[in-house]
Design a protein that fits this description.
Layout (H helix, E strand, L loop, with lengths): L31 H7 L12 H13 L2 E2 L7 E2 L62 H9 L15
Antiparallel strand pairs: 1-2
Length: 162
């Protein structure tokens, strides 16, 4: 996330940055008069597509449940209110997961019967790597801050809103 506000749909022309014809342009500038004349029907130039509407549409979609009619996922709550609590996952042997985050790495021994997989005594979590922590967060504890994220309230380098 940026540490400063980014442009959404309404760029601000810089004075003296672009020529009025086919000339040279300063870095980060554009000839907005030529763009408007090239794309006269574009919602970016007719006033119907503005930052406030873009943000409102994003917030509406971001806070509304999605429903594909049961095709693949059914109802998905985008506020993450039904995120699983991984502390309630039963782990062990006999085909159960080794941790809430992954399979049991133990071997079933001869044959392929998953009910013969013994419970693994100690399964180490990730050793770090890129980013912060071991990457094994419980969705039940992270869902509150993730659901609060909105355009403009994230801080560079953090997933927690201001």
């Amino acid at each position: 996330m940026p540490s400063h506000r980014q442009l959404l749909s309404q760029p601000q022309p810089k004075a003296g940055g672009a020529s009025t014809g086919l000339g040279t342009f300063a870095l980060g500038s554009a000839d907005y008069a030529s763009l408007r004349s090239s794309f006269p029907g574009s919602p970016a130039y007719d006033g119907s597509y503005e930052d406030a509407k873009v943000v409102a549409t994003y917030e509406d979609v971001n806070q509304s449940p999605l429903n594909d009619g049961g095709h693949t996922f059914g109802l998905v709550k985008t506020d993450f209110s039904d995120s699983p609590d991984l502390n309630t996952v039963t782990t062990g042997g006999g085909g159960l997961p080794g941790t809430p985050y992954g399979p049991n790495p133990a071997s079933p021994g001869p044959g392929l019967n998953p009910t013969n997989i013994p419970a693994k005594d100690t399964i180490r979590t990730g050793g770090g790597g890129y980013g912060v922590g071991d990457g094994l967060a419980n969705p039940a504890t992270t869902r509150v801050n993730i659901a609060r994220q909105k355009i403009g309230n994230l801080i560079f380098g953090k997933s927690t809103p201001r």
